[in-house]
Amino acid sequence: MIPILVITNRKGGAGKTTVSVNLAAEFAALEKRVLLIDLDSQGHCAVGLGVKVTAGQKTIHDIFTVDPFSIHEIICETAVKNVSLLPANTTFRHQNSGNDEMCLARVLAEKVISEKFDLVIIDTPPSLDNLLLNALCAANWVLIPYVPHPLSFEGVRQLIRVLFKVLSEKNPALKILGFLPVMTTSNVRQHKQVTEQVSKQFGALRVLHGIRTDIKLAEAFAANKPVRFYAPKSRGAEDFSQLAKLLFELM
Ligand SMILES: Nc1ncnc2c1ncn2[C@@H]1O[C@H](COP(=O)(O)OP(=O)(O)OP(=O)(O)O)[C@@H](O)[C@H]1O
Ligand SMILES: [Mg+2]
Description:
Blueprint: E1 4-7, H1 16-29, E2 34-38, H2 44-48, E3 76-77, E4 83-86, H3 103-108, H4 111-116, E5 119-123, H5 130-138, E6 141-146, H6 150-169, E7 175-184, H7 189-202, E8 211-212, H8 215-222, H9 227-230, H10 235-250
Parallel strand pairs: 1-5, 1-6, 2-4, 2-5, 6-7, 7-8
Antiparallel strand pairs: 3-4
Helix pairs in contact: 1-10
Magnesium ion is lined by residues 16-17, 40, 42, 44.
């Protein structure tokens, strides 16, 4: 089975989409064929990759409402070589995602996915609902970005409760790849304290080297590009390149 990596945190603004888009680009640069799935109806992955989604275009959210269809027909190419996108429906209502937590797992089991791709990344919305359950049931790895603020720690704890429930009842193959501090600043004492708290609770080995605060990461989104193309010499580009190499070894 190819690695299927879900990027999640119950907290909004925790860096999930920034990590999803930039990791996709970094894995692609390592010659991996990457499929990025945008489960968040905010649709920001398409923005970060410069993909225009037109009205009426089929999206990943159709798997929850439309009769079964083959998702490989609706995969979009992006401007980034080796990165393809299953875009979000920006008008999708979360309450329409039903109760079936295996919709995404079923479509990803299509043979064409493992033939065409080496890795799948799933960006998730900041909610604990059936969309998140679908992502956790379809994945075999989970990566949890967090901003090292006290409230984030609570968000991580809430997510972990859901994660353990999924692990024990639905998807025992799911493994935690790591906790990733993002928007870090080394001289802020609070950042160190929160990361120490995460290490103590979940194990120091699971806390990855973080992504530093870098305005280039925000600007790259506005320029519709991953940071490795927008500002190749930036801190953000350097941190994501290191992270992708490390994660590649761990998976
Ligand atoms: N390392 C960083 N340095 C500076 N800004 C960052 C960094 N990481 C993310 N950001 C900015 O922080 C904001 C939130 O990031 P992002 O959209 O990736 O979070 P998210 O968890 O996907 O949010 P949501 O829960 O709304 O989906 C964005 O404006 C993004 O550009
Ligand atoms: Mg997001």
